[in-house]
Amino acid sequence: MQNEIDKIEEKVVEKIFKLALEKFEGNNSRFAKKSNCSEASIRRIYNGKQRMTFNMLLKLCSGLEIDIQELLVGISTKKIKE
User: Fold this and answer.
1) 6, HSE (Cβ side, Cα atoms, 13 Å)
2) Cα separation of 11 and 14, whole Å?
3) Residues 9, 51: contact at Cβ < 8 Å?
4) What's this model's pTM, rounded to 2 decimal places?
5) What's the pLDDT tens digit per position in 12-46?
6) From CA 72, how far away is CA 67, in angstroms rounded?
C-alpha cells in the first residue's frame, strides 16, 4: 500500500514542479514566497527528501493559484490496497 501512495505523491510532486517551472520560470524563491513556505522545503520535496503534508499541498496549490482538483486530474487512487 505504501508503495502505491509513494508513487501517487511522486506524480503530484512532478506536476507541482512542472507548473511552478512554468509559472515562476524556475524561481523557487518566488514560488516559496507566493506559497507562504520556505524555499528549502520546496527543494526537499522536489528531491524526495521531505514528505509533503496535506497542509503543504494546499499551500503549494495556493501559490500556483490552482484548485487541488486540477492538480489531481489524471492521477488514480483506485489501486491503493489496504
Assistant:
1) 6
2) 5
3) yes
4) 0.89
5) 999 999 999 999 998 999 999 999 999 999 999 99
6) 9
Residue appearing with cell numbers 494546499: 58
Grid cell locating 65: 493559484
Tell me the one-letter amino acid at 24: F
Residue type, 5: I
User: Amino acid identity, residue 7?
Assistant: K
For residues 23 and 77, give the distance between their C-alpha atoms in angstroms, rounded to a whole number: 27
> How many Å apart are CA 27 and CA 39, to the nearest integer?
10
- Tell me the C-alpha to C-alpha distance, in Å, between residue 78 and each of 1, 5, 12, 46: 11, 11, 15, 25
Burial grade of 23 (CB within 10 A; 0-12, 13-18, 19 or more): middle
**Phi-psi sector, 66: left (phi>0), alpha (psi -120 to 50), beta:** beta
H/E stretch holding 13: helix 2-24
